[in-house]
Write a structure and sequence with these properties.
CATH superfamily of the largest domain in chain A: Aminohydrolase, N-terminal nucleophile (Ntn) domain
Mean pLDDT of chain A: 90
Strand content of chain A: 25-35%
CATH topology of the largest domain in chain A: Glutamine Phosphoribosylpyrophosphate, subunit 1, domain 1
CATH class of the largest domain in chain A: Alpha Beta
Shape of chain A: globular
Strand order of the largest sheet of chain A: 3-2-4-1-10-9-11
Number of strands of chain A: 24
Number of helices of chain A: 17
Oligomer: homotetramer
């Protein structure tokens, strides 16, 4: 408790994609563009692609959606047969291109670009050390810390050689602590790395002789790459003109026996069509829904999902319970910009722009509403009220995950503990707040049972508070002197 | 047959919205903006709002989505307590602002703006007549024809008076033939009209003393207006400072006994959360799905909808058949711009950008795929192939409407008859083309039975070829001298 | 007197350009773009080009500068071997694309586009008549009136034929009264017309077999067309596949003996490198300056122009007087957008953004400042004060034209009579207001003597109040119901 | 000779501006915006402003003109009472925001921003050293080298203190060699520095208690700041809450006796209304023109400047020679974007877009054309030909500076020596190439005599090849691995 104020630095949700096929179609940037499009749900604020023609890194980063940033003209400028890309959502106000990724620099070893998904818990401390040693920072993201560590590596192989790159990446990552799936690109190689506990996903694919790495398999599907396997926790994969090499990231350390694969990716963040940690996300959510029906049955007329993330669990709940499934809430496809609320205020305005309740379907019905999680409770409250206003006689809220009581420090955007309703209220209080007739959360144990997985391979700190990697308990020293802008 | 080449003029799918609340919050444009946002699915190419402060009509029209066009700055310029708006999708290449609506002009009666949903079958003929009488045209839309007819009306009441407006609208519409739901705005009144057969929807709502008219009730829901009733076929509603007046559009004509409410709105075009022609769209589609299961049962493991329009019918099919429902196809939320296909081609590229098949869900399963209609057959073929490529052992395609064999001339964008696969192929041929193991269409009779409606109140020309309003059988004389651009 | 409130309608300053070279390089739009660029000084608010490929008119119009509007992509869409273009500056707030030109429509005769430089004095009256006959208006410019008159012409030749076009243009222009230089484009011909008194300039040029018409010869120079001659007052030139035909606009009327060539074009509006009405603009202004020195000598140390329009006259003044010429005011090349004045106010902020006074040059000097005209007096006052603040011991203001006392109704943007300082103050009062030590205007007679021209061939109503074409003395009936916007 | 290939790195022409007035109007960014606008001629490619509110540095940088980049909204985000700004023109293709300035970073000493005008001759070498020590580079500009040196300074005062800032700036600049006028901004201080030889200008001004520094006095004039004096060569000025402090940059070094003030600023680069190195630029150029007439007289009818930079010298030449001055070339005010040349090529297209020759003025005249310099000779050739094509009987080219034979390595953009026509051709050859009837350059000695200055205080390496600061004679090692883009 009281950890909440610790982190005020930039927290990112992100997606990464890389393709290496030098000598082939020389349209790596176009594939990266499509791959990022398929990962757009992982970050809608900024995006970037860095390509290489074997000599120069070509960079383009901007604020906005992938489809808006990467025009045909921009892609034409991103030359070469290899590329990495990044989509990013930031939780703070620091929406500046200076924080967009991949981060690309020149250093003694040549040019290198990095895209990062995850969160380092000792980034502030490393930054302070690096600054003390004379480093300058142009962004506020963790990624720049990693690049500095690479640039300061003592590894001594020929600049630009695979040995130099792998050595300096290892040396840099040996210093950092936290969650990371990373893609590096130099003019001569692409490297993918997943941290030893495997918090964030990263998969390997193959497209007619080209190697692909991506946060989720949905990016492979779009470009018709075959899914080969996950990049394993603690694995380093290097691809260059000599092909693919897989090595242990830290050969001198024992393999982690406790893994930290993010269960929240399975619950909410990943796309349902992805294979995550070797499992179908859709099937996982479906199983959660079935289990939820077992744990929290209720007599009702309809099972209604909160679209889209609640759909598979609601189908599972409906199947298990025998209660008919209905799409009683419709989601608009056209949200994206800030709307101005009329002075004559509209109830639940923010939610209403995204969701509408179907009166004819819900009227007079006892409704089980299935959602994936409750964060602050404010949205759930609006949804329950909307459904009741549409005529439902009873509204039973069912959540296909345990109560979210702890903030994530490993790469999922969550508010501070004070803002998490489950951290400060018990379940009856939450039910009252969201105005539901009943409320049921999936149990922690039930969650793992539902999918037949061992808890020891997952991180569920957001539910349990059991953080697998320690982090500074005191707030980072206030950074009073800062740079913001473009 | 052979009618297909008749119409090469602009065909629109559109949505309209109007609000009259002069003297109230003076933020009619903001409500129109929200209303159009809720109608965005009816036209994504261009949008416009015309507001009035009682003296001047303020216009803003542009290409693009509602949320992009109407910035806070633009809305601030659209002053006044009354406004009408329009969203438009055009089927031809004429994507120019000059064809955007509402169409606003000055004429002897003052200033008037018009938004139109529908299609006139005698627009070309009227245009030729009007041009012969000295009219000039700045757009290629039907709407300009209506405005010219109003301007040339012989009605002789004081300019700007309700009598003048209603009289000239009546005189103009007496000349036109076809489908129309229309909203007119002048500095002193708003008029809503629905053609005598009621092809296109138009509803009336009330928001704290303000009158609202919209293509669909979903627009009422978003702004929290109460749904009052449909504007009836052949009804003219005038709203001005004296309140609302309802009159028959053509008092000297007998009421139509044969109505032409568009069944395709119910099948596909309208939003599932709308009340259309007095019925829940969701419930209608659900009923179609149940009936489809009765008419075309098949042993299978899963019922999978083509999202989003196929979802309610698929739920109905699953319920009726007892086969489990699954979201085996995932739809991307981020489509919108043209993507460049890599030279190394991707199979089903266009469909893949929108849909992905879930391998883990579909593998080894006998799948019933439910879609709302088949137009050219090319998309259905890609979807069936995607599902089979994802591992389905059988793919049974079920369509929740009869075969689409005839083009629509009343406001729904359909290709020419030659391009409609059901016009040129029988069902076994279609099944072969789309590579489905079996194919079943909902029967025409079954469709009406499913919802307990009389066929005499609907237009189903796209299925039956029974066109309720005659149209020129020969192609319009080629318009060799044209103006295109902005 | 009291005429000032008469005109509140749109007043334009404009430039026009046309090229006809069908069958040649098919890049007429590019030439039009360059031609308009050379005419940019005649209107910086909006611009448009209409091209034709012999079948369709391709239009592009937008707000802004020529170089910003016409990207390579836009020009590529403006296909064909003939094009007309227009630049426009409007004096009212009606800065909407709907008022941009060329105005392009379809009518019974096919498609036609029109670009207009000038001002009609009976446009309001004609508009009222046309509206009474059922015409609708989408803009507030005079040009739309002309198009309606063409569309309603009773001329009866084959549609699209030269006879039809020339006949309907003649019939239309026979109705209008005022100043006009016009270019028309149809898929089969280009027509240029200058009103019988020749208020606005229009020249004819030739570029390797292509015919060019433009407001000023500077547009010919840029594209290397040869200057052939002026289009004469009352002349109609038609260019089509059969070549160029010159006819009298009104063959049944006697030629005007009193011409109305705008002397203010020579004084200020035209570019100094143009040949205007057969005379070098630079030489004209130089001669005005010399005459000004004869009429208003003063002992001084320096002659300083207000750049750029005052430069040639200042050189002339310096030559005649023997007083050294100096560029004591520097003009910024980078003005264009609205600047925000700091709350700590800057003296003469608006003028200072454009001009800076050279202290080292002016300090302790008796300075003759030469400007082309004084309109409201506010800018002159700021300039005199700036020069004095820079250290000048005396500031003598010399104006190379007579006092501007009357508004222009024939196409030059002038404020109302009340706002013209010379209409309400005598010269000593003006000198006091602008804080000059002395003030001298060129005399009306001296102006014509300086260039050896007869006053009967020029309009100098802005100086003399002798309006050559009558106009409505009472304000047009307030147009209470209007349309504004895009 | 042979030095030309040495520098392929980024060469900038730049302007800088800074204002410190914390506690006052808090609109430093607006003043910076106006100041940069007045310095726009020093760099039109990119611009940036960094402001501070005493805690955070707020940055905005973008490609384009000052007036386009800094909208009211952007300025509102640049909070605080102090700001520095930068305009930049780059000679290489590296037109990316990543090279825009001020360059702003966080380091151990807090946040710092730097704007640089000049060029370091040992930047590549320092960069290599810094990279070897683990520094990373995100841009290709010299400025980042300076920032790294500051961050690595061994000075040990409290972070954020004036002593720390001044100490680290001194330590950093002690390492660099070349030309630099620099402005630094931290949340607590602004520092201005000019290199010991004073190559680039920097002036100090005062605006009601606020201190201002700028490249040229024209920036002071616009905001009505008083010109106090030049920042002297080798001077460091610190402004903070305690006021202004002036110190010697290198107190342990003897003052330079040989100064290197850039004579080319006086000839061409600075605005004529600036006071440069204590002298009026206008008066300097006027004196050059008079001297030129003494050195290279010729019987002629007109003296015509190449506008705008040639105007003061042409006036001087005309005065001295008694030959009448005429603006025989008109410059367009609307150049800015790339124009597409028609396939039917236009002679001298590039020059023609900017300049037009006045036929009526030039016809049959013997013309003396005065320009400030000849670089490659191609533009001069086009101008001479244009004047002759306009009818001049003789064209005598007079250049108000000596032959430009050597590239500048100290901050003025010049091509390589091979491209300088005066480096490879003698004067008769140049006259022949530019097709002039005669050619005369101002002599080196005459240049200094004309203004009564000692050559020992100026750098004239571009004319003499006498480089005051040595630079690497061999090309920098090719940087094969680079990052380009945004």
């Amino acid at each position: 408790m009281g950890y909440d104020a610790v982190y005020d630095k930039l927290k990112d949700e992100c997606g990464i994609f890389g393709i290496w096929g030098v000598g082939q179609q020389e349209e790596a940037a176009n594939f990266a563009y499509l791959g990022l499009h398929a990962l757009q749900h992982r970050g809608q604020e900024a995006a970037g692609i860095v390509s290489t023609d074997g000599e120069t890194l070509h960079v383009h980063r901007d604020m906005g959606h992938v489809a808006d940033i990467f025009t045909a003209e921009v892609i034409a400028r991103l030359k070469g047969g290899a590329a990495i890309g990044h989509v990013r959502y930031s939780t703070t106000g620091e929406s500046h291109v200076r924080n967009a990724q991949p981060f690309a620099v020149e250093y003694a070893g040549g040019a290198v670009a990095v895209g990062h998904n995850g969160n380092l818990v000792n980034a502030d401390q490393l930054r302070t050390e690096l600054e003390a040693a004379g480093s300058i920072f142009t962004s506020s993201s963790d990624t720049e810390v990693i690049v500095h560590l690479i640039a300061r590596s003592k590894v001594n192989h020929p600049p630009g050689s695979p040995a130099q790159l792998m050595g300096s990446v290892r040396e840099a990552l040996a210093r950092v602590s936290g969650a990371y799936s990373l893609l590096f690109l130099t003019p001569s190689a692409m490297v993918g790395v997943r941290d030893p506990m495997g918090f964030r996903p990263l998969v390997l694919g193959r497209l007619k002789g080209q190697w692909v790495m991506a946060s989720e398999t949905t990016a492979l599907d779009l470009i018709e790459a075959d899914y080969v396997r996950e990049v394993e926790p603690g694995e380093l994969i290097l691809v260059d003109r000599d092909g693919l090499r897989s090595e242990r990231l830290f050969p001198d350390r024992p393999a982690e026996t406790r893994l930290g694969r993010c269960i929240f990716e399975a619950i909410y963040f990943a796309r349902p069509d992805s294979i995550l940690f070797g499992r179908s996300v859709y099937a996982t959510r479906h199983a959660f829904g079935k289990r939820l029906a077992v744990e929290h049955p209720v007599p009702a007329d309809l099972v209604v999902p909160v679209p889209d993330s609640g759909v598979p669990a609601a189908i599972g709940y409906a199947e298990q319970s025998g209660i008919p499934f209905a799409m009683g809430l419709v989601r608009s496809h056209y949200v994206g910009r800030t709307f101005i609320e009329p002075s004559q205020q509209i109830r639940h305005f923010g939610v209403k722009l995204k969701l509408n309740a179907l009166k004819d379907v819900l009227k007079g019905k006892r409704v089980v509403v299935v959602d994936d999680s409750i964060v602050r409770g404010t949205t759930s409250r609006k949804i329950v009220k909307m459904i009741r206003a549409a005529g439902a006689s009873e509204v039973h809220l069912r959540i296909s995950s345990p109560p979210t009581s702890w903030p994530c420090y490993y790469g999922i955007d969550t508010p501070t503990r004070q803002e998490l309703i489950a951290a400060t209220h018990d379940q009856p209080q939450i039910a009252t707040y969201v105005t539901a007739d009943s409320l049921g959360y999936l149990s922690l144990a039930g969650m793992y049972q539902a999918i037949g997985e061992k808890r020891e391979t997952y991180c569920d700190a957001c539910f349990s508070g059991e953080y697998l990697i320690d982090f500074p308990k005191r707030p980072a020293m206030a950074r009073s002197l800062r740079v913001v802008g473009t």
